[in-house]
């Protein structure tokens, strides 16, 4: 294979993973076929099987890429805020926003892949990738008081229910009341 075609193959793979990462979070892994995914990036289904052993292999790679994007976002909050506690507050503001609720394809993979992970009885490599991403997110959200898992569970639950009720007053109330509960000063 020539350098140009190797480079093109790598670019096609990168595009397929990026598109899958977004579309799986928007529609679920069973909501997008391999044919539709490849059509969305202007390639054929045959090209898919030159790049990936299976759809499951793509799902694992797409989830890993999505959590990589989340890692970069969290790092950018730390950099922009200069203080981790302030960065955590900025993340809460973003996470519980209408913008995040309304853009699941570019949103948090913890929420975006949650339903699929729960429905798959033996998700194997995909579940391991997902669990590792959730653990990194929780570690970033951790405080001296806890390991971050309660915060992540609260954020993800709130955004999932807000998305499920989007277009209703309840959706806005979920975002607002959860934000208030998570950012209110607590008695020690």
Structure annotation, total helices: 11
Q: What are the segments in which pLDDT stays under 50 over at least 5 consecutive residues?
A: none
Radius of gyration: 18 Å
Task: Spell out the helices and strands N to C.
Answer: HHHHHHHHHHH
Major sheet, described briefly? none
Number of strands: 0
Mean pLDDT: 92
Query: Multimeric state of these chains?
Result: single chain
Instruction: Give me the secondary-structure category.
Output: mainly alpha
End-to-end span in angstroms?
64 Å
Share of residues in strands: under 5%
Shape: globular
Helix content: over 70%
Question: What does this 3D model show about the protein?
Answer:
This protein is mostly helical and 188 residues long. Helix content is 76%, strand content 0%. The chain contains 11 helices and no strands. Helix 4 runs parallel beside helix 9. The chain starts with a helix and ends in a 5-residue tail after the last helix. The model has no long low-confidence stretch (mean pLDDT 92).
How would you concisely characterize the structure shown here?
This protein is mainly alpha-helical and 188 residues long. The chain has helices spanning 3-27, 34-40, 45-51, 55-81, 84-95, 98-102, 109-112, 114-119, 124-141, 149-164, 169-183.
